[in-house]
Design goal:
This protein is 34% helix and 22% strand. By secondary structure, it is α/β, with parallel strands linked by helices.
């Protein structure tokens, strides 16, 4: 058993996915050497943190070749515009307001804050997307966030009124140092809020594709409350977010002068009922994951046996886990369509399926498409209405395999 990264207690294994490549490690050629690691999902019964047993060095995932660009999704653009508006509103009437975003990516959120003339700084370790953020008018510090860098930022920019992050806290292995950094950088009356894929949704839907190298932690209200308490902070609110297949936003304060919202107790009670505070709550997870993979592969193999062509839609990070664990390769999927420039004409990690530009999908009229970017399902189905009216069908797999 491995030690919990938060409290050093012994963890319990939930599921072993076997050898897995870097989720965003798209290849120039379908041959050659490739890095693999053991992807194992574990749970700490002491502080309730679900996490990976083994991790990959951050530099192997977040570097000048990082492939995830936030602004490629219109739904995410709208989501982060609203986040920015809330920050802008909280800055109203304050002279020395500072907003800090951890993992600002291409500036999808902070560009609105910058345009409003509000003092801000984005923290982004991947140089290629940091450069995009700067082009969007965002002030960026290219580094990993921890206590030391927090002290340096405080000295350079002053202390922060708001520290926020979206889909980033789950990436940082030394999360204790991040919370120490938050304590060092945040004003006494300041607030931290962050959102990440929600463990409750992952367990309920068996959406195991959220489990991959970049996601070290899988947060619940129970684990966040324990983590905050360890650092003299307090969880004061939780708000569900309809992004990334089910996310939760956590609000944490330093002095916790604000009353704790009743939503917190509601969610904590639901999590306990689901069993997220004990290993027994995960008992059916592996069984459900294996059933989904078996059903998905048998469905795809049946369609191939009927002579049908199948494409994939969205060369996502999360699809790496699905494709590799279910062993779905180029003999099943002809290609995967994507709009991210850095992924086009490359090959998927592990299974080596070719990634083609979106134009190929538009012109191909392939009869069946595996919706790998299922977390953007509503947006995609609306966008591809003409494809569906012409007889094209999408295959989805959470919480069960279906064709629509």
């Amino acid at each position: 058993m491995a030690d919990c990264r938060i409290c050093k207690s012994k963890t319990v294994r939930v599921m072993d996915f076997g050898k897995m490549p870097i989720a965003n490690g798209f290849l120039e050629k379908p041959t050659g050497s490739e890095f693999f690691f053991d992807l194992v999902f574990v749970f700490c019964p002491t502080c309730f943190m679900a996490q990976l047993e083994n991790t990959v060095k951050p530099e192997m995932m977040f570097n000048e070749h990082y492939h995830f660009i936030s602004s490629t999704s219109k739904a995410m653009q709208e989501h982060f515009r609203k986040t920015a508006e809330a920050i802008i509103e909280s800055a109203s009437g304050k002279n020395d307001f500072l907003a800090v975003e951890l993992g600002c990516n291409d500036g999808i959120m902070l560009r609105h804050v910058a345009a409003a003339g509000i003092k801000h700084v984005g923290i982004e370790p991947s140089s290629n997307v940091a450069q995009l953020a700067r082009r969007n008018g965002v002030t960026v510090e290219e580094c990993f966030f921890n206590r030391q860098t927090a002290l340096e930022i405080a000295q350079k920019y002053g202390k922060a009124d708001v520290i926020c992050g979206a889909n980033v806290m789950c990436h940082i292995e030394d999360i204790n140092s991040v919370f120490e950094g938050v304590d060092a950088l945040l004003k006494d009356d300041g607030a931290l809020f962050f959102e990440d894929p929600y463990l409750g949704d992952i367990v309920r839907k068996s959406s195991f594709d959220q489990i991959y190298d970049e996601h070290v932690y899988y947060y619940s209200g129970l684990s966040v409350a324990e983590l905050a308490k360890r650092h003299g902070l307090k969880l004061v609110d939780m708000q569900a977010q309809n992004v990334h297949g089910g996310s939760m936003r956590y609000y944490i304060e330093k002095g916790a002068a604000r009353a704790v919202n009743t939503r917190v107790e509601k969610y904590l009670s639901e999590e306990k009922a689901l069993g997220l505070d004990r290993i027994e709550g995960y008992a059916r997870f592996k069984e459900s994951v294996d059933r989904i993979c078996q059903d998905l592969k048998s469905t795809l193999m049946r369609l191939k046996a009927e002579g049908k062509r199948i494409a994939g839609y969205g060369a996502t990070s999360k699809s790496t886990t699905v494709l590799n664990y279910a062993q779905i390769g180029p003999e099943i999927l002809d290609y995967i369509s994507d709009i991210t420039p850095t992924k086009i004409d490359k090959f998927t990690p592990g299974m080596h399926i070719p990634v083609k530009a979106y134009g190929n999908f538009l012109n191909d009229n392939v009869p069946y498409t595996l919706l790998l970017a299922w977390n953007h399902k509503e947006e995609i189905l609306k966008k591809e209405d003409a494809y569906r009216k012409n007889g094209g069908k999408f295959i989805t797999y959470f919480p069960k395999v279906s064709i629509e």
